[in-house]
Design goal:
With 700 residues, this protein is of the alpha/beta class. It folds into 4 domains: 152 residues, 2-Layer Sandwich (VC0802-like), CATH 3.30.2130; 167 residues, Vaccinia Virus protein VP39 (Rossmann fold); 91 residues, Transcription Regulator spoIIAA (2-Layer Sandwich), CATH 3.30.750; 205 residues, Vaccinia Virus protein VP39 (Rossmann fold, 3-Layer(aba) Sandwich), CATH 3.40.50. Helices cover 32% and strands 25% of the residues. The protein contains 18 helices and 30 strands. An 8-stranded mixed beta sheet has the order 2-3-1-4-8-7-5-6. Strands 11-10-9-12-13-15-14 form a 7-stranded mixed beta sheet. Helix 4 links the parallel strand 5 and strand 6. The protein starts with a strand and ends with a strand. Keywords: Cytoplasm, Methyltransferase, RNA-binding, rRNA processing, S-adenosyl-L-methionine, Transferase. It catalyses: guanosine(2069) in 23S rRNA + S-adenosyl-L-methionine = N(2)-methylguanosine(2069) in 23S rRNA + S-adenosyl-L-homocysteine + H(+); guanosine(2445) in 23S rRNA + S-adenosyl-L-methionine = N(2)-methylguanosine(2445) in 23S rRNA + S-adenosyl-L-homocysteine + H(+). One of its GO terms (cellular component) is cytoplasm.
């Protein structure tokens, strides 16, 4: 009896243990991501040929305590390498793990290589060559705590590489994980099987191999043991011949009918090529179509098994939420009585199916923790009840009240919902035919999973009520920001949208930043600036994307000066001005720390707009800025540039901001709170969204 070890993806150990025992293995013992077992050589060959789950099959050569590099060298030297590596062959050593003595895997591999070379040189008088890329013999060493195991790789290329994959789509499912999904699903190898998002066809091809009783390793041209000194060629040829006969008979007898659907014709072409290479193309019917168009292809119930997209970025979730919600509706409507198995790294997405799983398994797709959920669609399944009904009703009511108003105002960007219901804590803004949904951070008293589930319900309900598809819904998470965090880049799409605000045309970017380039609540302030600007010299500091400058220019300003610290946003401001036909030397753009610029520049203005951040500690500023603490100092600087008879409009978004009236009076200024008149209809429920003041010289 020889000692062997089989590796596998985490979560498949018990399945692999059962499979190896069925292949004749004895003394089977599971461990993390692998199974140790014993058997004669034919058991290892059968495992290489027939295992649908193993990643590698290895012959164990040594296992010994290792406290320092001398233990490593001596332990490796005691292996009878001359019985495993033939004269003239190349080898390579792969080393994994570490302890206090061996912290570098390359060093560990080097010490074992030295031990092999020294022993063979002493026994044969030759020094074998190392070939790291394509060795004849590959040695695997694994160090765990103070114990080292050395094995000989019998597999060669990993066993999930069956040999049929000609092409693959994005993020293809490994073949041994696909086989595990099929086994965990309970599919009986004869019933109909549907994969509605089949990609390059891995799940269906693995199912076809099972149905045809074809060994998954039958198509592989080579295995690692073929160059090994202990290889029994006749034994292997007999086992391979037996598998060939079984595959031919099995394919002729196979009764399962498998159906693959995908909306990507290019990827479907890959799937057909792969199925043909595997020799199972007659068992699989591939059809182009989206999930929403999926029809039940079979008169008898069967299994629907798939690996739907997970979505690693928040921006991908709206489309995926819609996809999963639509799939759930399709299952209830057209696949009653069917078994369903879906794997995902996002339990929230699976929850969008709104089906109750019968069984859940923990699996790993590479390093990604996933869940495989098995469902049985009830024979009397009914359409799912509307999600988040209270929220949906409120949103529909808001839309009815605001859409007509917005058209009358000549605006196509406005807020539809702003945490109207505390349990649905988000803001929803319309930008023409797009929606931006901003999730507010939930209170610490609300469990994260519960807040997440509510948010996904909100997103799904929003798409249902508005009819806006997932690819036009943008998700963002809004927490309390510091400094210029709201301006930091989130993405690199560089997708621009031109929107209308009264008589102004403005550019917004819905994806790349937390804010879009347009503060919707400032709309009335910008309109008022446009009404006041005729014939005036206008200064806009902390200008962001210059939208206020655009309104002032369109209102007939004699000149405008736009100041911001960000080059990116100043360029955006210039593009906004050009879009509205406003250019020339009378419109100046200055990149500078606004406080420093106000302190060191000359120039007087009739109309000044200042909308500073609540707090900033940008590296480009000399000191931090707090609007409550420092607003009098800022207003003092601004007053130095305000002409007699001029007007300063001062805004900020700090909640509970208190104007220092006495400090203002000491500067010879007086302020009028105009906040209420600057709150647009779409922000009426949030009176603290901003503060706004008109400030003039007291003598006026």
């Amino acid at each position: 009896m020889l000692p062997f070890f089989a590796t596998c993806p985490k979560g498949l150990e018990s399945l692999l243990s059962d499979e190896l025992q069925a292949l004749g293995a004895s003394r089977v013992q599971e461990t993390v991501a692998g199974v140790a077992f014993e058997g004669e050589l034919d058991v290892a060959y059968r495992a290489c040929l027939w295992s649908r789950l193993a990643s590698r099959i290895m012959l164990q050569l040594a296992d010994f305590p290792m406290r320092d590099d001398m233990d490593l060298y001596l332990g490796a030297s005691n292996v009878e390498w001359e019985t495993h590596i033939q004269q003239g062959q190349t080898f390579a050593v792969d080393f994994s793990g570490s302890n206090r003595a061996i912290t570098n895997t390359q060093y560990g591999a080097l010490k074992i290589k030295d031990a092999i070379v020294d022993r063979l040189n002493k026994r044969r008088g030759e020094r074998p060559s190392v070939d790291k890329r394509f060795p004849d013999i590959r040695i695997l060493a694994h160090l765990k705590r103070d114990r080292l195991s050395i094995t000989l790789d019998l597999s060669g290329p990993a066993l999930h590489q069956r040999g049929y994959r000609q092409q693959a789509g994005e993020a293809p499912l490994k073949e041994n994980l696909a086989a595990a999904i099929l086994l965990r699903s309970g599919w009986d190898t004869t019933s109909p099987l549907v994969d509605p998002m089949c990609g390059s066809g891995t799940l269906l091809i693995e199912a076809a191999l099972m149905a045809a009783d074809q060994a998954p390793g039958l198509l592989r041209p080579r295995f690692g043991f073929m160059a090994w000194s202990g290889h029994d060629r006749e034994l292997w040829q007999s086992l391979h011949a037996e598998a060939t006969v079984r595959a031919t008979r099995g394919l002729n007898k196979a009764s399962a009918v498998l159906y693959g659907f995908d909306q990507d014709q290019r990827v479907l072409a890959f799937a057909r090529e792969n199925a043909e290479a595997a020799g199972v193309e007659r068992l699989i019917h591939f059809t182009q179509g989206a999930v929403g168009e999926l029809q039940n292809p079979s008169e008898q119930p069967g299994w629907l098994i798939s690996n739907p997209p997970y979505g690693e970025r928040l921006s991908e979730f709206p489309s995926l939420l819609g996809l999963h919600q639509g799939l759930g509706d399709t299952l209830r409507e057209r696949f009653r009585g069917w078994h369903v198995s879906l794997i995902s790294s996002s339990p929230e997405l699976l929850s969008c199916l709104r089906l109750r799983p019968e069984k859940t398994y923990k699996l790993f797709n590479g390093a990604l923790a996933c869940e495989l959920r098995n469902y049985l669609v009830a024979e009397d399944a009914r359409p799912a009840r509307p999600l988040a009904e209270d929220f949906a009703n409120r949103l529909a009511k808001n839309i009815k009240a605001l859409d007509k108003w917005a058209r009358g105002e000549g605006i196509d960007c406005y807020r539809l919902y702003d945490a109207d219901l505390p349990e649905y804590n988000a803001a929803i803004d319309r930008y023409q035919d797009h929606l931006v949904i901003q999730e507010y951070a939930a209170p610490k008293s609300v469990p994260e999973h519960k807040a997440r589930a509510r948010f996904f319900d909100l997103v799904q309900a929003t798409m249902t009520v508005t009819g806006v598809p997932g690819n036009k819904v943008v998700l963002k998470v809004r927490t309390r920001q510091k400094g210029n965090e709201q301006y930091e880049k989130l993405d690199k799409r560089e997708q621009w949208m031109e929107v209308q605000e009264h008589n102004a045309r403005l550019l917004v970017n819905l994806h790349d930043y937390l804010d879009t380039g347009l503060f919707l609540d400032h709309r009335p302030i910008r309109k008022r600036l446009g009404e006041l600007a005729s014939g005036k010299d206008v200064l806009n500091v902390f200008a962001y994307t210059g939208t206020a400058t655009v309104h002032a220019a369109l209102g007939g300003a004699r000149s405008t000066t736009t100041v911001d610290m960000s080059k990116t946003y100043l360029q955006w401001a210039e593009r906004n001005m050009q879009l509205n036909g406003q250019g020339g030397r009378r419109h100046q753009f200055v990149q500078a720390d606004c406080l420093s610029w106000l302190s060191h520049t000359d120039g007087d203005y009739d109309l000044i707009f200042a909308d500073p951040p609540t707090f900033s500690n940008s590296k480009r500023m000399e000191d931090s800025f707090d609007v409550q603490r420092d607003h009098i100092a800022l207003l003092h600087l601004l007053s130095r540039h305000l002409r007699k008879g001029g007007l300063l409009i001062f805004s900020n978004n700090k909640r509970n901001f208190k104007m220092d009236v006495d400090g203002l009076a000491a500067l010879g200024l007086e302020a009028k709170d105009i906040t209420r008149s600057t709150l647009p209809k779409d922000f009426a429920r949030n009176p603290q969204i901003h503060n706004c003041w008109e400030i003039r010289w007291s003598a006026q």
